[in-house]
Write a structure and sequence with these properties.
The protein is of the alpha+beta class. It has eight helices and 13 strands. The termini are far apart.
Length: about 300
């Protein structure tokens, strides 16, 4: 079912009343920190089609955020709006597309069971029920989950990242531009030390309901420090009874995402020609990486 273009505007102050009066819920029961009220500052578009289906949505908070859609329907539908979720993520499709990397937390044991069932070699692949304790025993150290320390993050991220990727300073600048209303008390870091050396570090957003993985850098090693840290963050979410763990909307980058974000959704990406309507600060992380690789300069 495709939603047509007959819409009317609803002000941000009226949205919760419309949601309550019409018994709406968030489409597909996803969550992202940008769904919090502090980010809802633009008008919403309301539509009710002939079969009674209601959709209520605005613009995505930034290019890394899924579109917040309220609806009264439990059926799948296709909304042709930027970053609107479409179909469940298909691992067999190798075509490049945008994905909302998402995991709906239950218990950590359930997560490992799902990974075991999905793996062709559960004793060898990580993380699974069969391999988790083996790798944890080899690494031995516990991850450190703490309040965000900008100096510590930049120093360690820059020492771990690959040369072609953005620096810690550039990442934070981009994050601040893309999140003008963020509560900076929500920022966290997670890292792991081995032999008095930080071997992996991540920056996260913790809104008290979910964890969002913004970026990660890890030392290359056969133990897989990056995937181990992400696995421990799943465990952290389960222990905190958080609703979900996600990595926002991005392309098919990083082999850890398919192993961690088991409830991911493919998202709608509008044709490139509409980019002229984007706000000037909405610069894609991967475009900046490409510019660095190609030796291009931002104007």
């Amino acid at each position: 079912m495709f939603i047509s273009n007959n819409k009317m505007n609803i002000s941000p102050g009226e949205v919760l009343k419309v949601v309550k009066d019409n018994n709406l819920h968030i489409y597909q029961n996803i969550w992202h920190y940008s769904f919090n009220d502090i980010f809802q500052n633009a008008n919403f578009k309301y539509e009710k089609v002939k079969d009674g289906t209601i959709t209520l949505y605005s613009e995505p908070h930034n290019q890394f955020s899924p579109l917040l859609i309220y609806t009264n329907s439990d059926k799948n539908f296709f909304l042709r709006e930027r970053n609107a979720i479409q179909n469940e993520f298909d691992q067999t499709n190798e075509k490049y597309r945008q994905v909302f990397w998402f995991f709906r937390t239950t218990t950590f044991n359930n997560f490992l069971e799902r990974r075991s069932k999905a793996s062709s070699k559960p004793k060898k692949h990580f993380p699974t029920l069969e391999s988790y304790n083996k790798i944890k025993d080899k690494i031995k150290e516990e991850i450190i989950f703490d309040k965000f320390n900008e100096k510590f993050f930049i120093e360690n991220y820059n020492s771990l990242k690959q040369p072609e990727y953005l620096s810690g300073e550039e990442l934070l600048e981009l994050f601040k531009k893309n999140n003008p209303y963020i509560n900076y008390d929500w920022l966290r870091i997670a890292y792991l030390n081995q032999n008095n050396e930080t071997v992996v570090i991540a920056i996260l957003v913790d809104d008290g309901k979910s964890l969002n993985l913004e970026n990660i850098a890890a030392k290359r090693d056969s133990l897989g420090f990056g995937i181990f840290l992400c696995t421990e963050l799943v465990k952290c979410c389960c222990e905190k009874n958080y609703y979900s763990f996600d990595a926002g909307v991005s392309g098919l980058y990083g082999n850890y995402k398919e192993k961690i974000f088991l409830d991911s959704w493919e998202t709608y990406k509008k044709p490139p020609y509409i980019s002229r309507y984007f706000k000037f600060w909405e610069i894609s992380y991967w475009m900046k990486v490409k510019q660095k690789l190609m030796g291009e300069k931002n104007e």
